[in-house]
Every structure is written in structure tokens, then in C-alpha cells.
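Quick start: read one record
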Amino acid sequence: MPKSVLITGASGLVGTRLTEVLLINGYQVSHLGRYKTSKKSVKSYIWDISKGFIEEEALESANIVVHLAGAGVADKRWTKKRKEEILQSRVDSTRLLFNKLASIVSPCEVFISASATGIYGLNTGDIWLSEKSPVGDGYLAEVTRRWEQEITRIQELKLRVITLRVGIVLSNRGGALPKLAQTVRWQLGAALGTGKQYMSWIHIDDLCQIINKAIVDTDLAGIFNAVAPNAVTNEEFTSKMAQVMKKHLWLPAVPAWVLKVMLGEMAELVLGGNRVSSKKIQSMGYEFNYTEVLPALNRLLGEEQ
């Protein structure tokens, strides 16, 4: 009988693609969200994080839990209320899963959770960062630190727990890439800030395959950076997009102060950056399909057009 995978945050960018990949690989897939989905190929369960409620069958029937839920970091301006939503959506949802799994006689075998490279802080320059690098400063680092604290508690349940610190996910279905590509298409593309800040990226299919490996490889446990082997600067990323789309970049870099006026505190998402290493996941035998950003952009932007 095929194993059952329960995905939280399944309606998001990664969850949608992961569902497709897991179904192709023969898994039974179910979704846990605020609303029932109408997809015939997956079962759908309800949870209400604020009320501490999860439909009982959701976790009892799952062999694997993949936890992707969390309010979008770049979806809205960072008001005080929004920052609290971003934090609590991650911390409270993970705590609820812990509490419910702890109450089950035979919980799932594997718990895989998204985390973020934001844990390393704002702009750490060109230093390569590994899973052993210290937690950085700033709002995103604090959010991710507290998120991972809740993930770590799940190890108390004697499950195999994998935490994936995800970089910038490249997809033509959503996320950052379509928005950035649009500015280049209109010949309004430009580097942001100095343009020297690093972007640690990953093609969405590589991320889904890493999650698949985490499911099947019983040696995989602990924290792993989920990023491609070769981070690029913002300036290089913008240049590669223009190359793929056969457009010219003629505008000067957008000054940091302009971005801060436009985005407020959220500007740190694009003005900062980290050069994050993927050596640990590679040492566990994962071979990336996309190690360089140009082939990844060729594939994604080619599909988009």
C-alpha cells in the first residue's frame, strides 16, 4: 500500500508543485488547510490554528508530514500586525502539530518542515554559510529561530525530523521570479541596492526532489540548507534574466533609500542576502538538476513565454 503524505500549506507555490511530484511518485497525498480543496486526487482536511483544532483523521492516517504552512513573507507590507501574523503562523502551527502528534499512539514516521535561510541574518556578504553558522540578527532571523525551536521539539516524539532552510524558490508559477522577470520584459529591470548582495536560490523541482529524498532516505535527519550549489549576486541574477529574455538593462541600480520608501522594513528582503552552502545535502547523495542559475532561468522563463 502506498505511503500517505500530509502536506500543510499545500495551496502555496511549493505545496502545489510538491503535490504533483508526490502523486507521480505513487504516494497518497492529503492536504491540511483552513478550507477543503476540491481536488479529486487528494484528501482534504481542516485545521484552525487559533482554536487548536485539527481533524483527527488527518494526522492519524499520515505516514509522513510535510509542513509548509506560513503567511507569505513578501505578500504584504510589514506592519506590526503583519509581522505578528508571519511569526505566529509558523510558531503556532508547528506547536499545534507537535501537540496533536504527541497525543497519537502511533504518529507518523517522518516530519519534514520548511525553514528559511533568513535565519543567518541580513547581509552576510560573500562568506559561505553552512548549517553550523550562527543565527543572525534581525526580524527574519528571529522569526526563523523561534520557528526552528518548535520544529526541534518534534524530535522528542522519536520521529525522524528534517528541517530544510529554503532559499529563494524559482518557479514560473509564482514567487519572486515572475515579478522580477516582468520588470526586465518591460525593460525596467535593474539591480537592487548595490547589486552585490547574494541570492541563494533553488529551482522548485530541486526543492521538491529534496523533500522526496527526505521521505525515502532514512539516513536523512536534522537541518539542511535547501539551496542550489552556486549562489549569485543580485546584479548577476538580473543580468542572466535579461540574457535569457533577450532584453537590455539600461537603468542604473535602484538605490537602497528608494526601496526603503517603497517597501518599508520589508526592503531588507532584497537589500540583504546570504551566500548559503548546499554541501551538506550534496554529501547525503542529492544531485542537483540545476546547479547554475542560467539553465534554471532558461528552463523557467522559456516555459513562461
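The chain has a mean pLDDT of 93.
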